[in-house]
Amino acid sequence: MNIAYTVVTVLAALWVGFSALSVFISAKWVVEPLAEYGVARRWWPWLGTAKAAGALGLLAGLFVPVIGVLATIGLVIYFTGALVTVARARSYAHLPFPLLYLAPVVGAFLLGA
User: Fold this and answer.
1) What pLDDT, on the 0 to 100 scale, is given for residue 113?
2) Which residues have C-beta within 8 Å of that of residue 83, sequence separation ≥ 6?
3) For the residues of 22-86, what is the DSSP string, one character each?
4) Fewest Cβ atoms nearer than 10 Å: which of 31, 36, 57, 94?
5) Is it the case that residue 1 has pLDDT exceeding 80?
6) Residue 110: other Cβ atoms inside 10 A
7) Considering Cα of 60, then 96, then 20, then 22, what sign does the dihedral take?
């Protein structure tokens, strides 16, 4: 197994997992922007769950590659949706934040391809 792929995948999973945890514990720096973007509070647990599932899927993908591919697809859709949500809210200064999570996920995928 490619060591760079493994390291980047684990780091991406930890990073996305941290993002999920931040939603679950209602970290101020995460939930305040969500409210500003107009994301209904009832969706927050689902968003955290989607990120957590994606993070776990990335790790499982180290052993069952198809799961990693599916997790990558799900996370790319998720963070693309986050970009659209931020743009629709006209919070252009916040556009880099979803990209900070999207980039390592895509990087892990490309290293594993």
Assistant:
1) 78
2) 95, 98, 99, 102
3) HHHTT-HHHHHHHHHHT--GGGHHHHHHHHHHHHHHHHHTTTSHHHHHHHHHHHHHHHHHHHHHH
4) 36
5) no
6) 11
7) positive
The answer on pLDDT for 40 being more than 70 is yes
Task: Give one word for 90, left, alpha or beta, with left for phi > 0 and alpha for psi -120 to 50.
Answer: left
Q: Is this prediction's pTM over 0.85?
A: yes
Report the alpha-carbon distance of residue 78 to residue 62 in Å, rounded: 21
Cα–Cα distance, 75 to 72 (Å, whole number): 5
- pLDDT tens, 43-91? 999 999 999 999 999 999 999 999 999 999 999 999 999 999 999 999 9
